[in-house]
Each structure stands twice: as C-alpha cells, then as structure tokens.
C-alpha cells in the first residue's frame, strides 16, 4: 500500500495515482470542502474538518471548529480499515500538506506496518493529530 500526502491546491488540480485509491480530505472548519477530482482509480473520499491546532483547556471552541477529536481519528481509522484490502493507495491532503495530512499519513503508515518515518523527515506532522490517530488504531484492534 502506498500513502501519499498533498496540499489542497494539489488535490484540487488533480493527482495521478498508479492504482485504485481513496482520499482522506482534511479541511478547515470554516472553509468549503476541497474539490477532489474524480480521477481514474478514485474509489471513495472521507471529508473531515478540524484546525491545525493543539487542544487548549482554556479555549472556548466547539468541537466542530476546534482541533482534531477522537471522533475524527476513529472516522479515519474506520475508513482506512474499510478500504485497505481493496485499494493500492491512500491519498491524504490538508490545506498546506505540511502538518495535518503528514501526521495522519505517519499514523496510518505505522498502523499498517509501513515506513512512517519519512513523514517526520520530510514534513512537520502535528503531534496531536498523530497521537489521536495512533490511539484510534490501538483502541480498535
């Protein structure tokens, strides 16, 4: 299984993936969903929206407008598990393709027994996002 990371701009321009694939589309809560092009091989898209932030006990922000929650991570885990035997790749994007999507990519890769270190070497994964997705996979074993 291949795991790819892109920015919103890249995913909206269209991507070429050499196998059947699914997309995890991570957006900001106050922006419209990314326009994921229905390229050849695209099988499904999961849309989630959360901020590129760490939770703050003092912040008075609703779950819908705040950082990633356990429910977001569980939705990602369930989506990956549903498709892992039927596609050759998972494409993950966020607004810039530098923090949230690499964090999800690293956690998904590690949970599937793939090399996850490259996402920490090439990007700046959001640690909160990574930890929540890892926890979701661990809890759902």
Protein model, in words:
It is built from 5 helices and 4 strands; from the N terminus they run βαββαβααα. The model has no long low-confidence stretch (mean pLDDT 93). With 141 residues, the chain is of the alpha/beta class. It starts with a strand and ends with a helix. Strands 1-4-2-3 form a 4-stranded parallel beta sheet. The chain is globular, with a radius of gyration of 14 Å. It has a single domain (2-139), classed as Alpha-Beta Complex (Protein-Tyrosine Phosphatase, Chain A), CATH 3.90.190.10. The chain has helices at residues 8-13, 70-83, 100-111, 117-122, 127-139, and strands at 2-7, 21-27, 42-49, 89-94. α2 crosses α5 and α3 (100-111) packs parallel to α5. The longest helix is centred in the middle third of the chain and has 14 residues, at 70-83.
Give a nutshell description of this structure.
The chain has 5 helices and 4 strands.
């Amino acid at each position: 299984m291949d795991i790819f990371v892109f920015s919103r701009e890249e995913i909206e321009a269209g991507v070429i993936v050499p196998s059947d694939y699914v997309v995890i589309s991570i957006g900001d809560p106050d922006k419209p969903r990314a326009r994921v092009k229905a390229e050849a091989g695209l099988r499904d898209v999961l849309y989630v929206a959360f901020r590129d932030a760490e939770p703050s006990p003092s912040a008075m922000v609703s779950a819908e407008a705040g950082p990633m929650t356990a429910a977001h991570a569980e939705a990602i885990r369930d989506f990956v598990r549903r498709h892992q035997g039927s596609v050759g790749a998972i494409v993950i994007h966020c607004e810039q393709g530098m923090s949230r999507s690499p964090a999800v990519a690293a956690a998904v890769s590690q949970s599937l027994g793939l090399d996850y270190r490259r996402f920490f070497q090439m990007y700046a994964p959001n640690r909160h996002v990574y930890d929540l997705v890892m926890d979701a996979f661990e809890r759902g074993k």
